[in-house]
Design brief:
Shape: globular
Distance between the termini: 17 Å
Number of strands: 12
CATH superfamily: Spore Coat Polysaccharide Biosynthesis Protein SpsA, Chain A
Helix content: 25-40%
Strand content: 25-35%
Structural class: alpha+beta
Number of domains: 1
CATH topology: Spore Coat Polysaccharide Biosynthesis Protein SpsA, Chain A
Number of helices: 10
Largest sheet: 6 strands, mixed
Length: 258
């Protein structure tokens, strides 16, 4: 829910929570069914995605028509979507959070998008690239990656190059002290339902958390098809998972990437 700078509908400078930007970009790419996995007692996300017509009228009464129009545009996307909020009873890791979505996704393939990560691309073309790779290779999992200077802060893959910017993943490890490569995961994934069975077989880490990367390694160990798609030069990652990355996200507007 931390705000970052972006452009409003009329091109003026404004602030939006990163999660709202994630939602709007997925919506603009054609998604209409959303499942939010939220922590126990944390209502701010559900409240933000609940239409509040009284607040719009309050903005108009105070001559804040630009903000009112921006909010109405967001609410229209909310109204024309199906939104479900699922509680994660205990903070047991990203893998466990994904597992909570099984009743929502059922037997269908689905997209997972973290709430503190965002990819910026022209016309959201990166999402179609991921879907195309997922379908082309009949993948059980597909994910974005990028080359970074310090991969020890991320999940890291080792893969066989299959084509331009495409890897078949042979190994994936979470925040390794000795990274096997400089290719780090970006928290946007496509899965089929096999990931749920893999999560069930994944043992918690030393913090009693179930890591999604460990579940993906389970898929690899079972001989499943896992592919990674590297961000290209026209795509920009925005993340707010640490104070340093949040500062960089706030500064990114100056370079006109958002």
């Amino acid at each position: 829910m931390l705000p970052i700078f972006t452009r409003s509908l009329n091109g003026q400078l404004c602030l939006k929570p990163l999660l709202q930007l994630v939602f709007e970009k997925l919506y603009d790419a054609g998604f209409r069914q959303f499942c939010f996995i939220v922590g126990r007692g944390k209502r701010s996300i559900e409240d933000h995605f609940t239409v509040d017509n009284n607040f719009i009228e309050h903005l108009k009464d105070n001559n804040k028509f630009q903000l009112a129009n921006e909010l109405e545009g967001f609410y229209e996307k909310v109204r024309s979507s199906s939104l479900v909020f699922v509680n994660q009873p205990q903070p047991r890791g990203f893998g466990d959070a994904v597992y909570q979505a099984e009743p929502f996704t059922g037997k269908e393939a689905f997209l997972v998008h973290a709430g503190d990560d965002l990819i910026i691309s022209r016309n959201n073309a990166h999402l179609m690239r991921l879907v195309n790779i997922f379908e082309k290779y009949d993948a059980d999992a597909a994910l974005f990656v990028e080359k970074v200077k310090d991969p020890s802060k991320y999940g890291v893959i080792v893969g066989e190059k299959m084509g331009k910017k495409v890897y078949q993943v042979k190994k994936i490890v979470e925040k390794p002290s000795s990274p096997p490569s400089d290719i780090a995961t970006v928290a946007v994934y496509a899965f089929n339902p096999k990931i749920y069975r893999a999560i069930e077989k994944t043992r918690p880490d030393k913090n009693d958390e179930i890591q999604l990367t460990d579940a993906i390694q389970q898929l690899i160990d079972q001989g499943c098809n896992v592919y990674a798609l590297e961000l290209n030069h026209s795509e920009k990652r925005i993340e707010i998972g640490t104070p340093e990355s949040y500062l960089a996200a706030l500064s990114a507007f100056r370079s006109k990437v958002i």
